[in-house]
Amino acid sequence: MIDAKIFGERIRLYRSKIGLTQTELAQKIHVSFQAVSNWERGNVLPDLENLCVLAETLGVSIDALVQKQVSSEERVFIGIDGGGTSTEFALFTSQGHILKCFKLSGSNASTIGLSSALAIFYTGIDRCLAVNNSVQGIFMGCAGSLFKEITENLSEYYPNIPIYIDSDGVNALLSADGDAAMICGTGMVFLSHDKNGGYRKFAGWGHDFGDFGSAYNFGRAAICEALAFEDGLDASPLIYSLLKQKTGASKIRGVLNVNADVAKIAEFASVIFDAYSQNDHYAKDIIHNEERALARIVKSVCPNGGKIIACGGINRHFGNITLPILKEYIPKNIEFILPKLPPIYGACREACRRFSVQVASNFFENFEADYNNLI
């Protein structure tokens, strides 16, 4: 039997993916706006004719809209990847099927405050529970600290749902099969497996103490370089020009400063890589300095070599630049792996482990297919 609420959520996700409003979708399939609204709210289901036209218009199969409902044998959980830039939620089953997946804003409680982070978690979890309220557990890997405070508040708000919280590095470490994970996102942290079946965290001390190779560090370097040039010091005119273009400001001083929001500063990391691609030697020096500092941690985490999962926005978007440079400073027996799926997959794997769930043999394949369809 088709679950009308899950069916409606899938219509909304696929519609949003191709950039249509409810009204525009209704016009394309020659039904009323109210019909689409009722379908998405799970009030009614379309007839077979409208279902066929709906699937064709959305560019998916009918199966993609109606299959993968939860069987009585499947257990339902929520996995959360709480990063500094965005927070991803996945409502999923022990078979690896995704019932709902979406992103909200960054939720690092150490930078945005506990109450703001909790508001994001409440919103995301409530959206998942609106689709399926038989959730048997939640695992969240999140950036920052304050894990105890977050756990206490969420457990009080959802007293009937067991909740585990750990570093977002756990999500990265389980997003593929490797010896350690290197997350270079807004911040930076390393994680590796320990001998007791748990995890060991390295670095991740926060932006005030040196998140080497992070978007924050690169963004801050771009601002400092631009401020130096504006003061007539030896600095990059290209970085200065690119940063002015990105901000739309005529001058950098007074518009940007190192006391600005961490996530905002991280947004300017791309300026360094844009300058590097134009052979700017100042940008080259900045990247080499960051990767040289990062290499010291890499060699300590994997002294005997091994496979390191490279995650986070810097590795995902600029790994073609950073990883070859990093390799110049580390032993050749250390290999980097770029995972096929994002850290939310690791969060869901860890949820299954924490709740002693025997996952299906095709868990990865199911998750990958659903994720690629939904995102």
Describe the SSE topology.
Elements lengths: L3 H14 L4 H8 L3 H8 L7 H11 L3 H5 L9 E7 L3 E8 L4 E8 L3 H4 L1 H18 L6 E5 L4 H11 L5 E5 H6 L6 E5 L3 E6 L5 E4 L12 H16 L6 H11 L14 H5 L2 H9 L3 H21 L4 E6 L1 H15 L6 E4 L5 H12 L8 H12 L1
Parallel strand pairs: 1-4, 4-5, 6-9, 9-10
Antiparallel strand pairs: 1-2, 2-3, 6-7, 7-8
Helix pairs in contact: 2-3, 7-8, 10-11, 10-13, 10-14, 11-13, 13-14, 14-15
Ranges where pLDDT stays below 50 over 5 or more residues in a row are none
Output the number of helix runs.
Answer: 17
Ends distance:
25 Å
What is the tally of beta strands? Answer: 10
Shape annotation: globular
Averaging pLDDT over every residue, what do you get?
90
CA radius of gyration is 23 Å
Task: Specify the helix fraction band.
Answer: 40-55%
Q: Hey, roughly how much beta strand do the residues contain?
A: 15-25%
H/E topology pattern: HHHHHEEEHHEHEHEEEHHHHHEHEHH
Secondary structural class: alpha/beta
